[in-house]
Amino acid sequence: MSKTQLRWLALTLAAVIVAAGALLWVNSGSDGPRVVTEDRVVATGGAQLDTTLYLPEQTPAPAVLVAHGFGGSKESVDGDARELAQRGFVALTWSARGFGRSTGRIALNAPDAEVADVSRLIDELAKRPEVQKDGDDPKVGITGGSYGGAISLLAAGYDKRIDALAPVITYNDLGQALIPNSATTEPLPGSPSANAFAAQGVFKRSWAGVFFAAGMGGAGFANPSAEAAEPGSDNDDQLDSQDPAAAAAGDGGGAPQGGLPPGRSPGGDQGMGPCGRFTEQICAAYTELATTGRASQSTVDLLRSVSPVSVTGRITQPTMIVQGEQDTLFGLDQSDATARQIAAAGGKVKVVWYSGGHDGGRPGASLRSQIADWFDFHLRGRGSDPGTSFEYAVQGALRAQGAPNVRTITAPSYPGLNGTATERRPVTLAGPQQTVVNPPGGNPGSITSMPGLGSVVAGSSRLASRLAVDMPGQVARWRSEPLTSQLLISGASTIRLRVEPIPGQPVPEDGVVLFAKLYDVSGDGSRTLPASAVSPLRITQLPAEVTVTLPGIVRPIEAEHRIEVAVTTTDQAYAVPSQPAAFTVSLADNAVQVPVVPGTRSAQTPPMFALIGIFAVIGLAIVAAVIAAIRRRRADDVDESLVDVPLVIENLAKEYPGGLKAVDGLSFRVEKGQVLGLLGPNGAGKTTSLRMLMGLIQPTEGSIRVFGHKIYSGAPVLSRIGSFVEGSGFLPHLSGEANLRLYWAATGRPAEHAHFEEAIEIAGLGHAVRRKVRTYSQGMRQRLAIAQAMLGLPDMLVLDEPTNGLDPPQIHQMREVLKRYAATGRTVLVSSHLLAEVEQACTHVVVMHRGKLVAAGEVADIAAVGGEATFRVDEPDQAASVLGELSGVTDIEIDGKQVHANLDGTPRSKALGALVAAGVAVEQAGPRRRLEDAFLELVGENKA
User: Fold this and answer.
1) Which of 575, 14, 630 is nearest to 288 (CA)?
2) Cis before residue 60, ω within 30 degrees of 0?
3) Average of pLDDT values for 247-254?
4) Mean pLDDT of all residues belonging to the chain
5) In this model, does residue 83 exceed pLDDT 80?
6) I want to staple 342 with a disulfide (CB 3.0 to 4.6 A). Which of 347, 393, 496, 874 is the partner?
């Protein structure tokens, strides 16, 4: 494993550990009816389970088993069990084998292990007089989150004594959850968030690594709070104050009645080995995935055997499926598949999507109450029938103490279960075929999510959705026009893509891996990746035309916003091919099909105690509004008299700590069509000035205006500047043209605005632009870099040392490139130390020394400081005589065909006119000194 991968895994582990320590499924139990608890050890085949029974005030009563999530223990769900007991149920919690103080090895809910354990626990409930029965059959329900949700489904499929179930934020097929493939050529089901669920997917290494580490015996994951990192924090539960050291020691709060056998350590009775607490089968499967990134058929079969998909075809008990909308581990597609399969088997299904999940928080009190209502009706016939409606939450912007201010949409049923397909609205996208590259080793990789990050701090799932990074050259984008009205996406959108090989480029043996995502693009161009969700896909043969299921989300796309579909070649959370490759991606259909589920709306009002949080958020909103107003004022700071002037710098200064002034009172102006050279010795302040011009650093004093707009970091007017900094980093195995197109695609701007042909023509690349960059000379690479800076034909080019490393013929060619670009009416600013080349390429020059301006003007005027001029003529003697008659002209000297004179303030044009009027043929006229001479005089060693 590389250092980068180790750092990434460490970060993900740290995120989950922090979340685990901070976010618990607990309830103090201090309020409400009295609950009595009883701890026992229950022996099963291959394990001894640490259990707690919660008895309500009145019995007999139906029982509800409450399963914990992966890495947790019975203490993780103490609060949920107490709530159910206070509602009048007998509740039973237990630490699954391999966790907490239970023994045995983790088999990931295998039928002959964890599923058989649940049946054994039901046997025990059937013996209890406190549990209501129909004859010998106990009335039993089961619920749990994530890993506990999966055991709820699996147990219901194997044991018909379970009468009702409520699985929460769990998976349908663990293989498709951890090795997803969202591309297919087959028709898709008509449900809102159906996924392709194709074979040979992409390994979700970050989440898988986190959970494998949790089962390796790391005590930090085996404490009561660990699985709480999955569902996240409750909206109104208390935070745990448990000592992390005690948690790490496996202190589960005291030994259960009967205790553990002597010498038996918490969390397992086997010594630690390379498989930790896992069975050898599970360890081998993970090792295969972690080392190869691929799953053999035996691994696929194993994961399916421990997944609910193996039994959903025989679940007919009433099932309330609760899934989170902020969940990069088990997305909405997993609950979608479970709902379809149970409904097809004849089961009664209610589906709820809420505004939380593994990245967004656990169900709040209201939703937990709905789960209790489900059991109330289906276990003892109390209350009204919860029915088979479909509810989903639309999250608003206001949060109070971590609780999202949401509205709930309720539809009569989950679309696709009753023979009716989900309504899908086409949104037209625009964009050409684009080339994308998978870099060697898949590094650097794009970033979309970090396991559990969203559950650590309230609101951070939203922040994370704004921090997605798509690496340049690795992404293709297509955008819609601004929407005319709000569009509420309710599920997984679909799009058809065409992926083709580039002639001569090899296709990786493992196939092409891509990651599709849907962005919400605001009017100012900022992108939000809803739920930080991404759809991986693997295509084994090219060319291919596939239907891609985008991530299941709930997102209102507001009017004036755009939908953007992006396809990348890398993602830090997944295992990607290590072979470098390049291929093209295009739209096979120019519309993305967006699912829409109409329904009735109801608002969720935050509780009274949350008002303090609301006021805090309002205060933050006011601060944000003030900042936005300041930014708008800065953005609107335009000098209308300068809107046609490329650049005006006034009294610019930059002082660093310690009193170092890199730039001091710099002022100059650049007009259209000029090629201006910025000259000065090392330390003169040239680079600092350019960095301020590009908005990279802020000046201490003064201002910079580009076309009248004041420059600041991120100023929109910066898009009118094209820049080239030495070392462009082109991909050598691609052609020059492909590199240019990749760069432009990374900007996210429309392809038709790039002006590829014009930039290539001005740069003089010719047919060489179709050759691979590795065949280019240094001069060709420099010209390609200039062409890249010219893309979009910016109104001003800023070039840093464009002739570095070039030989004389290449320098001459570069000089012509700059002149041709300025001839289009645009402006070029060149920073260079080659004075002779600046003299020949530039029309104007600014000379800096020790941060100050020492000279500015036309090159010829700067070079002619002191008035010395040279005329090449056919009659030197006659020319000397004519010049001698002009007032103020002195020091006339004849040197062959050249006549030198000190004009001493007399305009050179006047001297030239006198020579022509006298019949002297003038072949050349110019300053006698070179720019280099003037430069040395201006900034020489003796200059202060």
Assistant:
1) 575
2) yes
3) 31
4) 81
5) yes
6) 347
Percent helix, strand, coil in the chain (nearest 5)? 30, 30, 40
Dihedral sign, Cα of residue 272, residue 274, residue 280, residue 283: positive
Q: What is the pLDDT of residues 763-804, one digit of tens each?
A: 888 888 899 988 988 778 888 888 888 888 889 988 877 776
Reported as type and span, the H/E element at residue 601 is: strand 600-603
Burial, 601: exposed, middle or buried (Cβ in 10 Å; 0-12, 13-18, 19+)?
exposed
Three-state SS for 157-225 is HHCCCEEEEEEECCCCCHHHHHCCCCEECCCCCCCCCCCCCCCCCCCCHHHHHHHHHHHCCCHHHCCCC
Span 657-684, pLDDT tens digits: 777 888 999 999 999 889 888 887 777 8
431 closest CA partner among 87, 867, 752 = 752
Q: How far apart are CA 620 and CA 258, in angstroms?
A: 54
Tokens of 424: 């899908």
SS3 824: coil
Please report the sign of the dihedral spanned by the C-alpha atoms of residue 561, residue 563, residue 566, residue 571.
Answer: positive
Quote the pLDDT of residue 900.
Answer: 85
The predicted-structure confidence for 867-880, as pLDDT tens digits, reads as follows: 678 888 889 999 89
Spatial CA neighbour of 246 closest among 270, 216, 268, 266: 266
**Could you give phi then psi for residue 760, rounded to 5 degrees?**
-65, -40
Question: Which residues make Cβ contacts (< 8 Å) with residue 612, sequence separation at least 6?
Answer: 401
List all residues 6 or more positions away from 865 whose beta carbon is below 8 Å from its beta carbon.
855, 929, 934, 937, 938
d(CA 194, CA 199): 15
For the chain, the first-to-last Cα distance in angstroms comes to 57
Query: Which tokens is 538 given?
Result: 């693997």
- Three-state SS across 339-376? HHHHHHCCCCEEEEEECCECCCECCCHHHHHHHHHHHH
pTM above 0.90, yes or no: no
Question: How far, in Å, CA of 502 to CA of 586, rounded?
Answer: 13
- DSSP readout, 616-648? HHHHHHHHHHHHHHHHHHHHT-B-GGGTT-SEE
Per-residue model confidence (pLDDT) at position 913: 83
Q: Which helix (H) or strand (E) segment is 6 a member of?
A: helix 3-22
Number of other CB atoms surrounding residue 189 within 10 Å: 16
What's phi and psi for 757, nearest 5 deg? -60, -40
Query: For a pLDDT cut of 90, what percent of the chain falls above it?
Result: 44
Helix (H) or strand (E) holding 333: helix 332-344
Q: Would the pLDDT of 834 be above 80? A: no
Rounded distance between C-alpha atoms, residue 925 and residue 659, angstroms: 47
Encode burial over 548-584: b for 16+ CB neighbours within 10 A, e otherwise. bbbbbbbbbbeeebbbbbbbbbbbbbbbbbeebbbbb
How many Cβ atoms sit within 10 Å of the Cβ of residue 251? 17
For 21, 274, 342, 699, 719, the CA distances from 241, given in Å and listed in that order, are 8, 33, 40, 48, 51
User: Residue 849's Cα: distance from chain center in Å?
Assistant: 44
In a 13 Å sphere around the CA of 890, the CA atoms on its Cβ side amount to: 4
Paired strand residues for 582: 437
